Amino acid sequence: MKLSEFEKHIQHSLYNQEASLDTEAFIQAIFQKKEKKRRVFPFWWMTTGILLGSVIMFTLYGTGEKKRSIKKSRCRKIVLFSGCRNKREQKSGRSEISIQKTNIDAEEKKMSKLPGKSRIKMKWKIFRICFRNLQRQMKSF
Amino acid sequence: MDESQIIHGCKSGDRRCQEALVHKFAPRLLAVCRRYCIDQTLAEDALQETFMNTFRYISSYSGTGSFEGWLRRIAVTKSLEINKKFLKINLFPIESEINPADVVIPDIYSTLGEKEIQLLLEKLPKNQYIVFNLFVVEGYSHQEIGEILSLAEGSSRALLSRARSSLISMMENQYQYKRYPLAHL
Q1: Domain around A52
Q2: Which of A3, A41, A63, B33 is most buried, judging by how many CB atoms fall within 10 Å of its CB?
Q3: C-beta neighbour count of B6 within 10 angstroms
Q4: Is B132 exposed, middle or buried (0-12, 13-18, 19+ CB in 10 A)?
Q5: What is the block-wise mean pLDDT of chain B (185 residues), using blocks of 10 residues?
């Protein structure tokens, strides 16, 4: 027998070969898988949704925090080292430290109520106080 | 239900027709998957994927070629896809191509049954076995095999030739052993 004939024999016997299979169980498995794939919200959609939601939440929360911090920063703390000449004196606590809180918002409100000239005077006053404080602190360091 | 009704029903998403399709073709397609997969569970997975893809893309079936051939093509592609990591195709240069019309093999092999043939073919190296099956059993051309396995046409020819020579030498050895059982000692 020639090899070509043998190959035809192989094709004839293997092409129509059938394997035993529990068709009912197989059908159930196929349709279960299909239904799983047809979920209204697939897994990756859910994941994306959760991620997006959390990003939006954190962004909103973050902006809120920022607003609060802006408000806080507007309330300035002025630390005055009265009577201290150098750093040592500051650390030793001999000199008195007074903490002065100034609410810029309140000052601005006050300033807005004042007439033009006195508003400029007030500004100069604040500037001078700040400059003196800065000079004192520079000397002490 | 005849084939055209099943196809039409499947195109419109009728579940009864889909079940009928599975009933009709599953045993044959499982045999196809089994030939290209290393074990039964992988073959069943490939078969499941085959039907899933069939239901999804049945609308693209134009009806020109044989429907079974179309299904078999999906089954072969899916099986090979699943077994990709086990399928390492090694290529060696071939000295000369074997012409199957020139080679004579013992007549005893014409009486072999399905199981014996399957066992004989499974002894071939995996890559040769796959190309031999695709060419001889499925009837694909070397160009088609090249497309399925991402190979050059020449590589497919080389593998088929190697498969044929391995098969011939295996059959010769077996035949000698059957005729002279003690000759190998």
Answers
A1: 42-73
A2: B33
A3: 23
A4: buried
A5: 86 88 91 87 89 90 86 91 69 60 73 84 88 91 89 88 87 66 47
Residue A15: inside a domain = no
Mind telling me how many Å the CA of A50 is from chain B's nearest CA? 29
Please spell the DSSP secondary structure of B27-41, one letter per residue. Answer: HHHHHHHHHHSSSHH
DSSP code per residue over chain A: -BHHHHHHHHHHHHHT------HHHHHHHHHHHHHHHT-SS-HHHHHHHHHHHHHHHHHHHHHHHHHHHHHHHTEEEEEEEET--SHHHHHHT-SEEEEEEEEHHHHHHHHHHS-HHHHHHHHHHHHHHHHHHHHHHHHH-
| d(C-alpha B89, C-alpha B84), whole Å | 10
Q: Is A91 within the bounds of a domain? A: yes
Tell me, what's the pLDDT at B94?
54
Interchain CB distance below 8 Å, B27 and A18: yes
At B97, phi and psi to the nearest 5? -75, 145
Nearest chain A alpha carbon to B23: A23
For each of the domains in chain B, give its residue range(s) and CATH number, in order of start.
Answer: 3-86 (1.10.1740.10), 107-179 (1.10.10.10)
Q: Flag whether pLDDT at A45 surpasses 70.
A: yes
**DSSP state at residue B104:** B
Q: Is residue A14 part of a domain?
A: no
User: Looking at this predicted complex, what is its ipTM?
Assistant: 0.77
* Residues of chain A contacting residue B103, judged by C-beta atoms under 8 Å apart: 2-3
Residues of A with Cβ-Cβ distance to B106 under 8 angstroms: 1
